[in-house]
Description:
By secondary structure, the chain is mainly alpha-helical. The chain contains 13 helices and eight strands. It has a three-stranded mixed beta sheet. It has a three-stranded antiparallel beta sheet with strand order 6-3-7. Helix 4 (51-70) packs across helix 7, helix 7 (167-182) crosses helix 8 (189-210) and helix 9 (214-245) runs antiparallel to helix 10.
Amino acid sequence: MFSRVLLAVLAVSSLAGCQVAFYGQAIRGQAQILSKQRPVERLLARPSTPEALKERLRTAREMVAFAADHLELPADENYTTYADLGRDYVLWSVFAAPELSVDPISWDYPVVGSLDYRGYFSQAAAEAFADKLRAKQLDVAIAPVPAYSTLGLFDDPLLNTFLDDKPTELASLIFHELTHKKYYRAGDTSFSEALAVAVEREGVRRWLRHQGDSAGLADYERRLKAVDKFVRRILETRRGLKELYESAIGDAEKLTRKQAILSELQGEIRRLLTAAGKSPKDDFWLREPLGNAHLNAISAYYLRVPEFERLLAAKDGDLGQFFEALKGLP
């Protein structure tokens, strides 16, 4: 069991080098999840299981079956167990970038290649690592993560960290993580994450049509438009900063302009989140001054999404052909 836990840790982390502290927290985190898993069928049959939890487990089970039957995704034994971790998130991902570059800092590992983030099962450990990076004059951002994929080394469980999500958000997450099991390109974060976003979006649309939920589909499309507008604003800012950093002006002036640009962006985000009544979970954008790492956390997931959506359209929505065509993409 120890070796399998270690392998899973290596698949979901972005460790560079042999750091005992990192291995320790990662192994403990994965082992905790394994120890807390309970079979969904047993929970559904148990009279003491709260009805609200049973309903969410049934919904998730239906979504996994739909993914296998209609989305060409590998359900297998994934999400047949449930674990309550007693916290809001399973991982905290640390993103970093130089002060005057939008190129992300990456960490190498033989199993998954180069990744643009590094995951911790403990928020305190993530904060401690982030402090070390800041001491090197790097821009740093810490993003809370409700779920992750072990890329087939384990059958992934349902977790309390995402099971309470709204149905469309739950479907998005399940379809996203199963996409990683279907197709994962080692060493290419932006490819793998954007692919999963594109598939999750198409999957949710098909799920809602399958449910006959036209109102839910219309609402989902409206929310996607809002997300895409936000993403475009982030990516535009990132492109503008890239041009600034590559310009001939001095570094001091670059830093001054950078601060002004990101301060304006953060003000916009604060107004948008306040107007939308968002919860404190959205404080990723507000808890500290924005830096290049915050922008990279978005670009890693969304930069290539339009490319994958165009490919799926070119295949007339045939996901089997779509997945096969991925092999020919750079």
